[in-house]
From TrEMBL:
Lineage of origin: Bacteria, Pseudomonadati, Pseudomonadota, Alphaproteobacteria, Hyphomicrobiales
GO annotations of cellular component type: cytosol
Protein localization: Cytoplasm
Species per Swiss-Prot/TrEMBL record: Phyllobacterium zundukense
Active site: E143
EC number of the protein: 2.7.7.7
Keyword presence, Isomerase: no
Domain UmuC: 45-225
Protein name, per record: DNA polymerase IV
Amino acid sequence: MAPVNDPRFGFCRDCLAAQTSEGRRCHVCGSPRLLRHPELYRLSIAHVDCDAFYASVEKRDNPELRNKPVIIGGGKRGVVSTACYVARIHGVKSAMPMFKALEACPHAVVIKPDMEKYARVGREIRQMMRDLTPLVEPLSIDEAFLDLSGTERLHHDPPARVMAQFSNRVEREMGLSVSVGISYCKFLAKIASDFEKPRGFSIIGAEEAVTFLADKPVTLIWGVGKAFAATLERDGIRTIGQLQTMEQGPLMAAYGTMGQRLYRLSRGLDTRRVEPESESKSVSAETTFNEDIASLDDLVPILRSLSEKVSHRLKTADIAGRTVVLKLKSRDFKLRTRNRQLADPTQLADRIFRTGFSLLEKEIDGTRFRLLGIGVSDLSDDGRADPLDLVDVQATKRAVAETAIDKLRGKFGNHAVETGYTFGKIQSRTKNVPDEIE
C-alpha cells in the first residue's frame, strides 16, 4: 500500500484515495483526475481562482442557463464583467465592449451584475479558506492566496491534499468550481491556477521553475502589461528565457526598479509573503451611463444614489471615512479624481453627497461624462463619526431624518423611501454597478 505522502503515486482529486501505482485512473473510484508531482507534498503556497465566478453563480441559481452562453455586464455602453466558458468559446472576453461581445455571440444571455449576491457568495468561500489557515490574502472577490505552511499537524494532511478537499467542498456545498495552483511562491502559484481551467489543479515546483519559465512570454511576469511588453520587444526581449541570461545591473539600468523584478521573477525568485486581509482603504460606488451626460441636473440624482449606496455600506460595516473622493470619466476615457477632507469622519449619505456635489459643480464645463463615482477613504471605526453640528442646525435635522429613512428601508426595503433627488430620475440612465471596497 502506497503511503499518503508518496509523490510518485499521488492521490485522486475526487475521492482523495492514495494511489498504489502510476496508472491513469484512480484504483478506487476510476476517476482520471489524479495529482502527482515530485514536490507534491513539499509545497504550501496556494492560489485559488473561482471559475467564471459571476456567470457560474448565475448558472447555479438558474439551472435553465446551464448550457447557454452567459455574459455578465451592463447595457450596450457597458463592458463584459465576465463570461461563462460557453460564451468564451465564441470569443467573448472580460473587459470587452458589450456590443462587440454580442457581435461575437449574439445568442448570449446578458445578465446585469448582482454584486451584492456575488460578494455574499465570495465571503462564504473566503470563510472556507480561513477554516484552513489564517494566512489568506484576498486579491478580489473571487481569488486569494493561501499560505498553509505549518498546517499539516492541524489537518493531518499535507497542503496539496487539504486544497483538494477544499476544492471538493466548494463544489459540494456551494455548487461552484475553483481552480487551484500550488507552488513555493506567490508568483508561480498564481500562474499555476490558470492551467486547465475550469476545475484545474496544477503544481509548479522549485526544481522545475527556471526551465518551466524559459519559453514563456514576458507578459507572464506580474506588472508586464501591453505597453511595457512593447518596450521589451523593441529591445529584442520576448521570452522570460532571454531575461534569465541577463544580469540584474543592466536590467535595472534599462528599466529601473522594474528591471529588478524582471531579474528575480524570471528566475522564480519571489519572497513576498501571503499577507492576511487588511482593513479596507476605501469604500466607493460608481456607474457607467448608457449615454454620455454633461448636465449637472442630470448628474445630481446619480450622485445622490451612489452616495446612499456608499453610506449604506459604511453603516453596515460600522466604519466611517474622512476623505470624500469624486471620480469622473469623460467620453474619451480621461479620468478625473477630486477629493476633500472633512473635519470629522462620516458615514452619512447627506454629507457624502453634499461634499461630492461641491466637487462636481467645479467640473461642469461642457464635458460629457460616461462614468461617475463617489467614495470615501481614510477609514476608521464609527465611534467618532458625524458629531452633532452645533452651527448648522439643518445638517443635524437632515442627519436625524436620514436615520429615520434608514430604519424604514431596513424594514421595508431599500426602495421604500426615496429622496426628491432620486425619485424616478435615474433608472434609465445608468447601469447597476454597486459598491466597491478596496
